[in-house]
Amino acid sequence: ALRGVVAMDGPSGTGKSTVSRRLASSCGAAYLDTGAMYRAATLAVLRAGLDADAPSDEVASAATHGVQESGTDPSAPTITLDGEDISAEIRGPEVTALVSAVSALPEVRNTMVARQHALIEEAVRDGGGIVVEGRDIGTVVVPDAPLKVYLTASPAVRAARRGRQDARAGRTSNLHVTLADVERRDRLDSSRRISPLYAAADALVLDTDDLSADAVLDRLRALVAERG
Ligand code: C5P
């Protein structure tokens, strides 16, 4: 069984969400998608009629109100805004375009990390385990996690995966635009002053260009079993 926290970090399109959720399900562990929390906060900003040019205190205030995650069950992760299920809408292009700007604000990150700590503590109380995915889990949110994994892949492979994901979800997308977005978010997420994206020194770095989700999952399950 999985005990404690598995920290899963890396940029978008590495298969992080698929693998994290399946790892949690197959180990009877809880699951937390912190990217969904920043996406939901961003949708709250858009619904408040604000954009990247609005004053940052107004953005931060709109971002931290009304969002509620359903808990940490890997079989049904939903997230709501003022009671409405927004799990699908937060994957759309409007949110994706603005999320890196909203998540770079210190007030937004402080609020999110406090919520993440509460959800994680609840999951690991009484010896439980949780797989937490994001950009700063192994570096900032849970720096003492016993298992840290950093997934990478080349931008072209990641853009192609994002494109297939969009197609499956019924969203039209264009590979050039998706690649440009992947590279833009890499740049913003890696260069921001607070909690930038990078692999923790003690993270296992896995390049998934030539690894299927099944292969990555096998590696992680073996690691979890080894560490008992
Ligand atoms: O993982 P996902 O692509 O859904 O994350 C969306 C965005 O949320 C990222 O590009 C990043 O800007 C932000 N994020 C973050 N910290 C996290 C998770 C996501 O800043 N722990």
Please tell me about this protein's structure.
The protein has nine helices and eight strands. The chain is α/β, with parallel strands linked by helices. It has a single domain (4-222), classed as P-loop containing nucleotide triphosphate hydrolases (Rossmann fold, 3-Layer(aba) Sandwich). The strands form two sheets. It has a five-stranded parallel β-sheet with strand order 2-6-1-7-8, with helices on both faces. The chain has a three-stranded antiparallel β-sheet with strand order 3-4-5, with helices on one face. It starts with a strand and ends with a helix. The model has no long low-confidence stretch (mean pLDDT 94). The protein binds cytidine-5'-monophosphate (C5P). Cytidine-5'-monophosphate binds next to α2, α4 and α8.
Instruction: Indicate the CATH topology.
Output: Rossmann fold
SSE pattern, N- to C-terminal:
EHEHHEEEHHEHEHHEH
Structural class: alpha/beta
Q: Mean of residue pLDDT?
A: 94
Bound molecules: cytidine-5'-monophosphate
For the largest beta-sheet, the strand count, sense and barrel status come to: 5 strands, parallel
CATH class: Alpha Beta
Radius of gyration: 17 Å
CATH superfamily: P-loop containing nucleotide triphosphate hydrolases
- Which CATH-level-2 architecture? 3-Layer(aba) Sandwich
Overall geometry comes to globular
Q: How many separate structural domains?
A: 1
Strand content: 5-15%
Q: For the largest beta sheet, what order do the strands appear in spatially? A: 2-6-1-7-8
Amino-to-carboxy terminus distance: 7 Å
- The number of strands is 8
DSSP helical segment count: 9
The share of residues in helices is 40-55%
